[in-house]
Amino acid sequence: MTPREFEHKVSDYYKQQGYKTIITPYSGDWGIDVIASRGKDKLAIQVKMYGGSSRKITRLQMMQLYGAMAYKDCTRAVMVTDGDYMPDAIDVAIKLGIEAIYLKDNSMQLLKEQNSKSAIENETTVKGLMAFDEMWEKYIMPLKGKTLKTKNRENKIVNVDWGGIVRSTSKGNRGKIEIEDIKMAYSLLEKNGIVERSLINQFVKRCSSGIILLLSQVPFIGVKKNPTIQLYVKENYE
């Protein structure tokens, strides 16, 4: 069986569950191999044919899949393999609510440990948090031209659009934070009600402090150090 045939096998499985499926093209798929939709449920599925090899699913692959899910506005992320998962990949799956599935022969098995722990994690999901696009338009776009200050630095927001923000530091350095990176952090916050800077750092490069500064301008999002820097959703934010 080729990797493409394996993707079709996974697609056929979800079709049997009543989903409409699309197998994405090789290029420009953002790491999503199959998109399965049923009602409001939209799955971002990544398929890895690792059986018979020494390769294993890593935590980075889990994080990248979660990012692709958020960027493509899917409701759930699913990783399917006929191989093995690294222990820290399962830890990430538990934390982010990714379904880690082992496909052997013709049966799909959701890893029992991950399934039970995900149910516990999902209890902390923030219900009814403002949609990202609405939050962006209402609270982030008006920041254009303003200077945001912290104890040690300041950032002038030069421009804000649907591609992201352009900022200028107190030293005159200018840089852009892509909207998908900010959306990633917001999605993590929506999922767990709190997100550490160290976790954001695992998804994006060199802009976690800017993302935290930016999202902390939203009235229902706060910042605390406990003991690491964290974003959190304030109580009674509605």
Describe this structure in words.
The protein has 238 residues and is α+β, with helices and mostly antiparallel strands. Helix content is 35%, strand content 30%. The protein has a 6-stranded mixed β-sheet, with helices on both faces. It has a 4-stranded antiparallel β-sheet with strand order 9-10-11-12. Helix 2 packs parallel to helix 3 (87-96), helix 2 (59-71) packs across helix 6 and helix 3 runs parallel beside helix 4. Residues 112-125 have low confidence and may be disordered.
Total number of beta strands: 15
Number of helices: 8
What is the H-and-E element order?
A: HEEEEHEEHEEHHEEEEHEHHEE
Mean pLDDT: 83
- Portion of residues in beta strands equals 25-35%
Please summarize the sheet with the most strands: 6 strands, mixed
Our measurement of the CA-to-CA distance between the termini, rounded to an integer number of angstroms, reads 52 Å
User: Can you tell me the overall shape?
Assistant: elongated
Helical content class = 25-40%
Task: List strands and helices in order, with pairings.
Blueprint: H1 3-16, E1 20-23, E2 34-38, E3 41-48, E4 56-57, H2 59-71, E5 76-81, E6 84-85, H3 87-96, E7 99-104, E8 107-110, H4 112-122, H5 132-140, E9 147-149, E10 154-161, E11 164-169, E12 174-178, H6 179-192, E13 194-196, H7 197-201, H8 208-215, E14 221-225, E15 229-233
Parallel strand pairs: 3-5, 4-6, 5-7
Antiparallel strand pairs: 1-2, 2-3, 7-8, 9-10, 10-11, 11-12, 13-15, 14-15
Helix pairs in contact: 2-3, 2-6, 3-4
